[in-house]
């Protein structure tokens, strides 16, 4: 996933009303859109270096969007909308080893009246639903965790994936760690025990969990290494 234009660096000041962040760029302060509904635990420290994208779309009230936060020496991708783009590129280039040589890759596919999954992919006569979760939390060195807040939406997606499995679909959940400093993944059971319990049960009912980290460059963010997941 390549950035359309070079990102703009600044210093984080504060987040408020969930979707707004103030960032200092040079001598001016700008308000940017925060495309992340999670708590972003451990990342929102005043003075942290951040990178923003900027749009020329006149219909956008906020021209800037928060993309990356630097926590200590590590870059963390916080734009949850980019996660699907990163995985989409990886699926096309056969970087997800469990899902290679696919015939069709469709995005945002409707399953029921109230449910859409991130991807529907097909390979020969098999169909797979894939849901992607963006991971930014790391409370212990080298260990990524999900979720960083109670996720009723995530709970719903597991239940719907299990329904899809009963209807003949293969089901996958990809945890995309938008960090470059973690080599393990685990569930944050203390943050959302209900989600973690249901996920553990779903794994025993044919849900395949994959976990990958990301590689950052000036051009963009790409899916990188498969990470060991503890469920």
Radius of gyration: 18 Å
- Number of helical stretches of at least 4 residues: 3
Give me the CATH fold name of the largest domain: Trna Endonuclease, Chain: A, domain 1
Low-confidence stretches: none
Give the proportion of residues in helices: 10-25%
How do the strands line up in the largest sheet?
7-8-9-12-14-15
Mean pLDDT: 96
CA distance, first residue to last residue: 28 Å
SS-based class: alpha/beta
Outline the structure in words.
- The protein is an alpha/beta fold and 231 residues long.
- It has 2 domains: 8-77, Beta Barrel (OB fold (Dihydrolipoamide Acetyltransferase, E2P)), CATH 2.40.50.580; 80-230, Trna Endonuclease, Chain: A, domain 1 (3-Layer(aba) Sandwich), CATH 3.40.1350.
- Helix content is 17%, strand content 46%.
- The chain has 3 helices and 16 strands.
- It has helices spanning 80-92, 152-166, 193-203, and strands spanning 8-16, 20-25, 28-33, 49-54, 64-71, 74-77, 104-112, 115-123, 126-135, 137-140, 143-146, 170-177, 184-187, 207-216, 221-226, 228-230.
- The strands form 3 sheets. It has a 6-stranded mixed β-sheet with strand order 7-8-9-12-14-15, with helices on both faces. Strands 1-2-3-5-4 form a 5-stranded mixed barrel.
- β8 (115-123) and β9 (126-135) form a beta hairpin.
- α2 (152-166) packs parallel to α3.
- It starts with 7 loop residues before the first strand and ends with a strand.
- 34% of the residues are buried.
- The mean pLDDT is 96.
